[in-house]
Amino acid sequence: MTGRTRDREVVAAAVIQGRRLLLAQRTRPPELAGLWELPGGKVEPGESPADAVHRELLEELGVEVTVGERIGADVPLRDGLVLRAYRAELIRGTPRALDHAALCWVDARELREIALVGNDRGWLPDLVTLLGG
Ligand code: C5P
User: Is 41 touching ligand 1 by the criterion CB < 6 Å?
Assistant: First the structure.
């Protein structure tokens, strides 16, 4: 590292199977509980974003994925965090809600109607396109 200030990255995964996207329902904080998101979390120091997607989905969903290309635009969060979405493909396991209230698979029409967390809403057009919607 050069010591220069860099945004710390939060990763989120777009897991798509066929024409459906996997969403996870948050349990916390109270203002976000019940809303749906692309699963993910903070990149740890020394970890690549792809490694973080892999780790987070193992921890949160109990699955292994391969991580693909970035999708959508960066979302600036508080405290120098930046949220980025990546495609991910399931290679092992069936997703379970280990850290969320529930999981669901949505098609393009359902995605447009579901209550997403605000930070993830900007990705809607990109996600709808990926779902062939
Ligand atoms: O899930 P976790 O609390 O580790 O996420 C870190 C931050 O990223 C939180 O502020 C969370 O709201 C945000 N986040 C988000 N959209 C996602 C995943 C995380 O806004 N799909």
Answer: yes
Mean pLDDT of the chain: 95
Does ligand 1 lie within 6 Å of residue 10's CB atom?
yes
Q: Looking at the whole model, is its pTM more than 0.90?
A: yes
* C-alpha dist (Å) from residue 68 to 15, 34, 86, 87, 101: 10, 28, 6, 5, 26
Task: Kindly report the protein residue whose alpha carbon is nearest to atom 5 of ligand 1.
Answer: 41
* Residue 52, ligand 1, Cβ within 6 A: no
User: What's residue 133's pLDDT?
Assistant: 86
pLDDT for residue 54 is more than 90: yes
Structural domains in the chain, CATH included, are: 8-130 (3.90.79.10)
